């Protein structure tokens, strides 16, 4: 059992007895700050679970939050990390707020990833660590339904981080934009974001950057919502029903 684990056990025991965190003995200032951050993240995720988006709610009224990350590889279990993260709050296809941060990873950004994204280690030297920034990101995305292209990649990194640091995971609703795109235009397939953008002739000058891709996906989602309306898919229930009958 490592020191950090022993600290959590000790602190949680004392808190369960009603001892305020500021009164917990033998806790350094740094440990207290870390513990308070853990409590904050857990509380935020629990509150998010309580938020309910009615299935009969019209799509134009639902706050959809588009997210994207850039990562050093494809496997968080093998040490790959997020080094860029972006999100856009939208309603009825319109951009309402935008979030973007570079993140300083523990390990070097591989050269082939730097060539793809244009982001090198020197660009992130003064950026925060993911542990410093995650609470801001979670706060930004906590009041909507998150969507993205190949969103399982982004969620796998986010949930790996949350599990390793807080023993919790994101449990909110999410949608895979590729599935919605292919449901609308079946039998056509759109395995990449590039093909989806090309279909609607949407430019993306900063492709393979988190903020550039999110900005392009804001426009893509606006076009998708217009097509859903044309197909009389108007509520979240309609959308889930249409997705459920798609051939696998």
Summarize the helices and strands and which ones pair or pack.
Elements: H1 3-16, H2 29-50, E1 63-71, E2 82-91, E3 94-102, H3 111-117, H4 130-141, E4 145-148, H5 151-166, E5 174-176, H6 177-185, H7 193-199, H8 210-230, H9 236-244
Parallel strand pairs: 1-4, 4-5
Antiparallel strand pairs: 1-2, 2-3
Helix pairs in contact: 6-8
How many structural domains? 2
- Helical content (DSSP H or I, runs of 4+): 40-55%
> What is the CATH architecture annotation of the largest domain?
2-Layer Sandwich
Task: Tell me the radius of gyration.
Answer: 20 Å
Continuous helix count: 9
Strand content: 5-15%
Number of strands: 5
CATH class of the largest domain: Alpha Beta
Overall spatial form? globular
CATH topology of the largest domain: Nucleotidyltransferase, domain 5
Largest sheet: 5 strands, mixed
Please state how the strands of the largest beta sheet are arranged side by side: 3-2-1-4-5
Distance between the termini: 45 Å
- Poorly predicted segments: none
CATH-assigned homologous superfamily of the largest domain: Ribonuclease H-like superfamily/Ribonuclease H
Residue-averaged pLDDT? 86
Helix-strand pattern: HHEEEHHEHEHHHH
């Amino acid at each position: 059992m490592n020191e950090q684990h022993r600290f959590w056990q000790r602190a949680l025991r004392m808190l369960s007895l009603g001892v305020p965190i500021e009164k917990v003995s033998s806790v350094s200032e740094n440990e207290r700050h870390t513990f308070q951050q853990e409590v904050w993240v857990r509380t935020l995720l629990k509150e998010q679970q309580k938020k309910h988006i009615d299935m009969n709610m019209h799509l134009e009224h639902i706050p959809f939050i588009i997210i994207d990350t850039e990562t050093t590889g494809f496997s968080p279990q093998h040490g790959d990390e997020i080094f860029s993260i972006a999100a856009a709050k939208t309603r009825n296809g319109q951009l309402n707020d935008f979030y973007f941060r570079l993140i300083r990873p523990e390990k070097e950004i591989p050269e082939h990833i730097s060539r793809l994204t244009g982001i090198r280690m020197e660009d992130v030297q003064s950026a925060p660590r993911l542990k410093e920034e995650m609470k801001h990101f979670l706060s930004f995305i906590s009041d909507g339904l998150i969507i993205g292209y190949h969103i399982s990649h982004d969620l796998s990194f986010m949930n790996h981080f949350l599990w390793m640091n807080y023993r919790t995971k994101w449990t909110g609703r999410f949608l895979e934009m590729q599935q919605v795109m292919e449901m609308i235009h079946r039998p056509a397939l759109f395995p990449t974001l590039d093909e989806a953008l090309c279909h609607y002739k949407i430019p993306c000058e900063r492709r393979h950057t988190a903020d550039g891709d999110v900005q392009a996906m804001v426009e893509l989602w606006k076009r998708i919502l217009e097509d859903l309306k044309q197909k009389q898919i108007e509520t979240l229930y309609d959308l889930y029903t249409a997705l459920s009958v798609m051939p696998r």
